[in-house]
């Protein structure tokens, strides 16, 4: 008589978690954040809403984790396609040309922000963070701050190489090109293009006064 193998609960939980992530991202894109509910996510994922509440306390938390997971999977796929270690792909390149390195990363950011798979959930997270302190804190900690640290590290390396003034605060310096990009994207005040972010970098590094 064949021996029955007990179901692997960890594998089952991972399948459920993945289904919930996919359902949350799909609903945000299809009907918007305000109309998306825990019940709707559960129904779309084929799980009970109790399963969701066992892991998360709100749809904002579900969306944040789903978005972070999407970013990690896409980054891993991009690194694999480029034949590089995923850990290396999380760093801003240091070719010795600061302007070129910043433009390279900001162009990739523009492409990502223009991708419908990212745009809808990213906008929803930004909006939810304005009214939900807990989501806002996790949004900054898990999503924004790691990226800003990469820019700050690259600017510090440029300072050590003599390419940036020693008295510049890297955390303020990075805002010269990161913040205008974020504002244009959030407010829709203009197109997001590679030429735009190239110009941001040129203005930030060279200033506005005559040379």
Automatic annotation (TrEMBL):
This is TetR/AcrR family transcriptional regulator. SUPFAM superfamilies: Homeodomain-like, Tetracyclin repressor-like, C-terminal domain. PROSITE patterns: HTH_TETR_2. The keyword Oxidoreductase does not apply. InterPro entries: Homeodomain-like_sf, HTH-type_TetR-like_transc_reg, HTH_TetR, Tet_transcr_reg_TetR-rel_C_sf, TetR_C. Residues 37-56 bind DNA. It comes from the Bacteria. The keyword Ribonucleoprotein does not apply. Residues 14-74 form the HTH tetR-type domain. Keywords: DNA-binding, Transcription, Transcription regulation.
């Amino acid at each position: 008589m064949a021996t029955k193998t007990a179901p692997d609960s960890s594998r089952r939980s991972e399948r459920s978690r993945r289904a919930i992530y996919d359902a949350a991202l799909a609903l945000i894109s299809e009907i918007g954040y305000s109309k998306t509910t825990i019940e709707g996510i559960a129904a779309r994922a084929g799980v009970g809403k109790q399963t969701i509440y066992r892991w998360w306390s709100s749809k904002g938390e579900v969306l944040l984790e789903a978005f972070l997971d999407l970013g990690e999977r896409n980054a891993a796929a991009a690194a694999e396609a480029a034949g590089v270690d995923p850990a290396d792909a999380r760093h801003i390149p240091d070719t010795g040309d600061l302007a070129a390195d910043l433009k390279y990363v900001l162009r990739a950011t523009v492409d990502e922000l223009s991708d419908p798979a990212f745009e809808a959930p990213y906008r929803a997270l930004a909006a939810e963070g304005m009214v939900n302190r807990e989501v806002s804190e996790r949004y900054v900690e898990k999503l924004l701050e790691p990226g800003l640290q990469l820019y700050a590290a690259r600017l510090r390396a440029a300072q050590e190489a003599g390419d940036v003034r020693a008295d510049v605060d890297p955390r303020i310096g990075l805002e010269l090109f990161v913040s205008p990009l974020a504002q244009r994207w959030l407010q829709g005040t203009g197109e997001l293009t590679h030429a735009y972010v190239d110009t941001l970098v040129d203005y930030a590094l060279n200033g506005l006064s005559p040379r």
